[in-house]
Amino acid sequence: MRNVWKKVCACVLCATMMVGVKVPSTSKQDMINVTAEDDHDGEFTYQKKTYQYKNIDSSKISIVRIKEQGGEVTVPSTVTIGGKKKTVTRIDGPFADYQTYTAISLPSTVTEVSYSAFAFCVINKLKLSDNLEKIGEWVFWGADIKQISCSSKKLKEVGGYIFCDAKSPDIAVLGDWLVRYNVPSDVKTIDLTSSKLSGVTKAVNFVFNFDEHVTDLKIGNNNALLKTNYYWNGCQRNIKNVYLNGKLVKCTGANETVPKIIKDNYDFFDWGNFNAEYTKQKAKYVLNNLGLNYYGPNNKIIGTLSAAEEYKICKKVHDYIVKNYTYDVKANGSFGKVFNCHTVTKCQYDCQMYAYLVECAGVDAETCYQEGGNHAWDVVSIGGNLYYVDTTNDRANHMYCLFLYSNETSDKGTDMWGGGHINSNQRYTNYASDKWDLQTHPFANRNLNGKRPNCNIIHGDINKDYYCRGGDDEMLGAFLCVGSTIRNKCLKSKDGYVSLTDSEFKTINSSTSGNKTITLAKKENGKIKLLFDPSACDVNFDGAVNICDLVCINQRLGDPLKK
Questions:
Q1: pTM value?
Q2: Is 118:95 a contact under the CB 8 Å cutoff?
Q3: Which domains does the chain have, with CATH numbers?
Q4: What percent of the chain has pLDDT over 70?
């Protein structure tokens, strides 16, 4: 019985909804037929087209549907319904969805077009309201609209996906909004200087969506469309060649930076092909300007150079970064942003820039960080041994104290410039392996992620205090004065002990450096123990210990900001 009553009620409801109600109008042309259904409150006929509408309030209505397809449609701005004048202020879905028209024109009274109003429609020419303020989501979903226009200066809100899966137009500008920019598969250039975009000041999110077939970008002096949220899934990173006012942007000197419009919007270009190419171009000029060869990222020269050449490269690049960049903890982006814009830097970008440059010059390098801390620096390989380089702290302290140090420096050293301490708990930096990270950080060996660097040698630590600083130069100077026979015996020592005659022992402890007598050995349990590390005396890595090493260590103990 219950099911029978349900069927009866359903039939009554359907019959009620199908009843047409005639309402008189003040104009024969505007005679309307009102039909009550769920998605509208009535109908009216205008210029041989039947419109279904919904009341917004006592004086405003929205149009929800045109019942007849084809031809040209001019939506009225006002209609008289039941003796009352109503203003058309909104177009609601499914207004013209899945229908075909030659042209549709919306009146200036319309301020909003809502969800899917033109979904999957076919229209040759569509003119939107000159006073449009809001467009909802999915409005032109799947549509094929040959020409669309909207000159409204009041448009403030545009929903997402409004041209999702649409067939046309390729470019659509509504007011000052870019709402569609389709890139055909045979087009490789995004032209932001096009006259069609001259009035654009903003765009909908992800309006640009292209892959690696797009390689070129044309820009002028307007940066309105250089925002990452306008590009789907970072697709702007595919851009390799940038033309500014018709001229290809490329680096032509070591001290050159990218043009101002690119510098001001570098987050748009960061991590992409343009950043990678410009970085390579500038790196070549920088290294050549330092008197070094440029081999490029991931070159086959790495590991084949002499230790002396590797040392020279590491020192020159160290000095370049220390002298030419200033520190600011607020710096952000990638090291390419710092390098190519010559902006402020911090430890993360110091070490990445250093690793990139020395590897392009032929020296193996990695970056590392303090586990649980907030500092980063470098690991370099010289003569097959690993050393740390910290350009950030060396810049702050005007010295080379953290140039080629080791784990022992941080684990056992107790003091630095005025009581400070070196960061410990070192780990190789963790880098991602996606396409863009691999390109931006080509120096990083991902197999080392999170491991502790095996840095066990302190370069230039002659007096064995875990640092290369004052005192090491005095010991080296005294050692060079003892004569070649004693020097050779000491240099052959493997355990810190040496066999010397009484005369030689007296000589080694009477040597002077700067009018100061330096003690280089002592007797211990009947043996002669060296108080310095002979293996650390080859400061310039040329395989010999001589006056050149003293010159080198004196340079290291100087101020790199002044030398």
A1: 0.85
A2: yes
A3: 40-182 (3.80.10.10), 284-411 (3.10.620), 472-557 (no CATH)
A4: 91
